[in-house]
């Protein structure tokens, strides 16, 4: 089914993936598979998925190829099933039952390709009382308890963009799931369905916190714990110029270094005395407001105090450490995060920019030997 891995294209070279276009966690998961070297064909719908930005700037569609198929047309499902027959993995993000009604559900695909790994990306999951309901990242993380942990006490929970639910609890769990299922399929010849629900993944991310809660080491309220901003030496502080510094001086030796560089050595004993935490926080707050973010960055630069400046999205690519590691890259005039993680034997890269809807139809028709994708049913020559 799969072809040999192209040189320099990452560890998933030769793996074929079909992505049924959507927005958010599904495309991000498919991007990650593409970054890792998979041949990802995105099946766009006529008119686009409705993200609202120019497709040329949607970097979650980098390293992919696109074909346009109207799944509501008489031959739409057949074209997708032709792709599924030749694929290792299919990813879709419809509400439960929609893919089945369109004729491209798991049973339809497995009838053509029993080895296929069918990845389903939803917020609520494929079953349960809310499975049919609409939702977004903030809805899903709210019910898991994760959103309720974030923010200052007495204030509304802080919304962490859509990173925690859509991408951490959703996309990354879908990728882990489909790759694990692919391993099983290659060992047994049998594919399966992977039900990746954002509520499940986000809840799973809080495993350590639930252990601490059970042990009495975590209070079930916001801003009252070691890792949620309740601790004065784990949080953020404003500087003289309106910037912010992030502090993570948890261990004794790091905390001692932190307070020494702040000039607050006399408050070392307050670190382990919860009744003095308000005093310690007030002192740290006042001290940080004495200097600018740049000055504090220089002050802590060569220390193990676990202090870093809070950078903006545009600032981050220029930080010396991230620049040295090429954590961000420029491709096609767009600054974007480079593929991660890194591999010693099969390095990854941004090979192509965002796939424009339909632009890859001819190449996919040739490489996957599906002439009908372009409306040309004549036999096509094998790719060079």
Topology, element by element:
Layout: E1 16-20, H1 25-35, E2 39-44, E3 64-68, H2 76-86, E4 89-92, H3 98-102, H4 106-112, E5 117-122, H5 137-144, H6 163-188, E6 192-197, H7 198-205, H8 207-214, E7 234-238, E8 244-248, H9 252-262, H10 277-288, H11 293-300, E9 307-309, H12 320-325, E10 328-331, E11 334-337, H13 361-367
Parallel strand pairs: 1-2, 1-4, 2-3, 4-5, 5-6
Antiparallel strand pairs: 7-8, 8-9, 10-11
Helix pairs in contact: 1-6, 2-4, 5-6, 5-7, 6-7
Q: Tell the overall outline.
A: elongated
> Count of helical segments?
13
Q: How large is the radius of gyration?
A: 25 Å
Give the uncertain stretches in residue-range form.
1-8, 377-384
Can you tell me about this structure?
The protein is α/β, with parallel strands linked by helices. Helices cover 33% and strands 14% of the residues. It contains 13 helices and eleven strands. The protein has helices at 25-35, 76-86, 98-102, 106-112, 137-144, 163-188, 198-205, 207-214, 252-262, 277-288, 293-300, 320-325, 361-367; strands at residues 16-20, 39-44, 64-68, 89-92, 117-122, 192-197, 234-238, 244-248, 307-309, 328-331, 334-337. It has a six-stranded parallel beta sheet with strand order 3-2-1-4-5-6, with helices on both faces. It has a three-stranded antiparallel beta sheet with strand order 7-8-9, covered by helices on one side. A two-stranded antiparallel ribbon has the order 10-11. Helix 1 links the parallel strand 1 and strand 2 (39-44). It is elongated. The two termini are 17 Å apart.
